[in-house]
Amino acid sequence: MPQELNLYDFEVTGATRRETRLIDTTTEDIPELQVLPPKLHSGKTYETLVLKERGKGDIFINYGEGFVPSKDRYDWQSTESFPLGCVMESDRIAEDVEDNTAGVQSAWDRRRSNQMKNVWEKTGDQIYKGRREGDPKGFFGFADVANPNKIDALKSEWNEIDNFVAGDFPGGAANNLTKIYLLVVAPGPEGDHQGLATTWGGNKMLTLDEKHKTSKLDGNGNPYPIWRQFLWGHMGLQVDTEWDVVEIVNVPTHQLEKGGFGTGGAKFHIDNVISRALETYPTAINPNWIWMHHKAHSASRRSRQIINQPGQAGNAHQPTADGQFARNFSVYDPEDEALPILKSRIMPTYNGILS
Which tens digit of pLDDT belongs to each residue from 252-277? Predict the structure, then answer.
């Protein structure tokens, strides 16, 4: 019988522990898929009622006057999940030979693990690139979000991007640029908001079909025996409001110094840019994750200068636990509220300044 798989807590209904470990090892390099909670829904799409504008009528009146009614504005927002999956195949004759050493099952596991890892890598890539930059058959991602809160890191930090010379960028050109995302991630599959989540149609996440024997034609049209197994699901990305994804563009993945890289000029401080992005949020909304390229994270640590004690500066001192960002990063305060950082190895980088 086909098995329904839960990617996030690695529980497998009716499956063996071997299959549970397999899924675990193929997702450990894609933390994005483990941070975003799953939301199951029936069918291919579901509708969410989103408050777009709260009524703000006058509350003070003169004696003898009536109250002016205020109106709230709601919009229905549609989220769609799209089909994805893969087919896993292996030459049964070749596995008979491998059975003398590692065994048929372990050889199959290796092949299946590589196929599934390809699925997760492309899924993670789609989260960032969406249909605009990624696969047009896939689900909508960060790149598709209309983002009025976007911040240009180079303009924000140095207030100019046109006066750079080749020496300002390692490698000689305006390359090695990436993005940073401040995100409102939903609190979990049972949370009310509200926030980012992966969506799964058909009220289930993944279906793993039975491994079965069949045949396949070679290039000359001649059959040979194979093992075959299908994996499929229907996945999307829930984005409730414009504040769920605040994008910082033109973030260097290497430490930059104004006037030429490595020449002792003014350093580019990624922490400064993140702080400015945090200032754009309304009081009632707070991001709960920062996602950045792992090289940009290393650059931010190298550029960081904080005050360890009054009047004493120190370089590259981590003000919070590694992998977190303190809102008040310039002064070490263990009580300071910190945001967890996801250090991504699949986040895209770009050649050239992003508009």
Answer: 877 666 655 445 556 677 888 888 88
**How is residue 13 written in tokens?**
């209904």
Hey, which residues does 309 pair with through a beta bridge?
Answer: 312
The residue written with tokens 């001192």 in the block is 317
Nearest C-alpha neighbor of 158 from the set 79, 252, 236, 88: 252
pTM for the structure as a whole: 0.79
Reading the block at residue 70, the tokens are 């205020």
- How far is 211 from 227, CA to CA, in rounded Å? 7
Q: In angstroms, rounded to a whole number, what is the distance separating the alpha carbons of residues 203 and 45?
A: 11
How far apart, in Å, are the Cα atoms of 305 and each of 29, 117, 271, 309, 332?
30, 39, 10, 12, 11
Q: What is the pLDDT of residue 162?
A: 47
Which residue type sits at 224?
A: Y
What is the assigned CATH class of domain 3-51+75-137+197-238?
alpha beta
**Which residue is it, tokens 């209309």?**
146
Residue 347 identity? M
* Residue 331 contacts residue 307 (beta carbons within 8 Å): yes
Domain ranges for the chain, please list them.
Answer: 3-51+75-137+197-238, 147-189+241-344
Tokens of 30: 């894609």
Residue 145 to residue 198: CA distance in whole angstroms:
15
Please say whether the beta carbons of 242 and 42 come within 8 A: no
